[in-house]
Model the fold of this input.
Amino acid sequence: MALITCKNLSFAYENQLVIDNLSFEVKTGEYLCIVGENGTGKTTLMKGLLALKKPTKGEILTGDGLRADQIGYLPQQTPSQKDFPASVMEVVLSGCLNKKSFSPFYSKEDKEKAKANMELLGIWDKKKECYKDLSGGYKQRVLLARALCATSKMLLLDEPTTGLDPVAIIDFYETLRELNRKHGITVIMVSHDIKEAVKQADHVLHLTQDSYFFGTTKEYIKSNLGKEFLGGYENVG
Amino acid sequence: MWDDLIQMFSYPFMTRALIVGILVSLCAAVLGVTLVLKRYSMIGDGLSHVGFGALAVAAAFHIAPLYLAIPVVFVAALVLLRISENSKIKGDAAIALFSTSALAIGVMIVSMTSGMNADLNNYMFGSILAMSEEDVRLSVILTLAVLVLYVLFYHKIFAVTFDETFAKATGVKVELYRTVLAFLIAITIVLGMRMMGALLISSLIIFPALTAMRVCKDFKSVIICSLILAMVSFTLGLALSYFLATPTGASIVVVDMVFFLFFFIAGRKQG
Done:
């Protein structure tokens, strides 16, 4: 049983079809990159996976004991977060909220989990610092730690490297790869950077205006779509 | 000076004003942090005008003012909080739309019925004399309820304020908390209007939060700092208005302004 199975999915906004008849699956421990140009429905698909938008046709099934609210989501940063007064600890802890919908306070268990995830990402010594004062790379680590508090199974990332400087990007990809390989966390990443995606992921879902490609990265590099978009960039993998 | 202060509180209406005023200020301060961070600073202003419209209607039909104004403002708050960037009418435009429409309806009804009487005038500009014994009791209960609810929902409110999409994706019932927030705001605004007036109530909401944010670096300390600021500036403002015989609302705003400038400079120095 796959972690996530999408069967004949269609999404539409006010009768405008954005995604038509899309099928793919993600197994535990895989690293899938969703690529495609603007307007091909990457964000819509993401919302669908997070159960924030209902598909007009088809279904999204979760397996391997994954609940819909157990997806660790790393959203794009919003403008209001630029001046938000919050300590790193407060932000990370807010990832723990989904399990206990009634208790008004964080348990000891929550705090330990937050600590473990912050140590994993090397930000425990920054726990009292103000989130808005951190560099872009550290901000992403904080949000990753928060996402890991919400899940131990799957991360879903929305253009995570936007606005990061080149060193931070390399660093971020390395962190992700480690989480994927060492800790067995399934990763689904939406990205516009196809070349980098091919280097990182083991599966690729490429959305285009009227069709799509889904397969392993090796298949993708050999496919016509892959050749076209990678443009002679074949010596990877 | 000390004698003056004792004399000030020998008037029962001053004690009443102090108790209710501090409680309302505390509610406004905690809610204000969320509203300012969510870019909803003007919502207090808009809702107070809606409140004014509702009170005018209540006066014309002889309905108890609070029982009409709280539900109406609650509905308006719910609608305004729901309007996101993607809706056809943007948030700031929607607030302006609501506030002017409600004000116009209020003025129409007032001029068709009784004319601008003292009661409505008080709602516009605020008066500490407007508080009856019964008002005080209701205000104390409601404001305490607001504060207790805020403490109970504190972490969820933080999560929803910081990142609504993430909260929603991880199964936090964002809609529920938005409704709770709208309810808390409605109560605070309607109660605060009597003292501060529809024109100045938004200052109770935005000033403590903005001032606290100049120097505080995390959410909890911003909340605590704005609570203290709200309490201190209300008390000082009330005393100022008593000694200078100036309107209460305006006096409090002036104190708020001084604190803001002071914190602004302190924040700059801190870097």
User: Anything to note?
Assistant: The longest helix of chain B spans residues 12-37. Chain B touches chain A at residues 37-39, 151-156, 158-159, 162-163, 165-173, 213, 216-222 (CB under 8 Å).
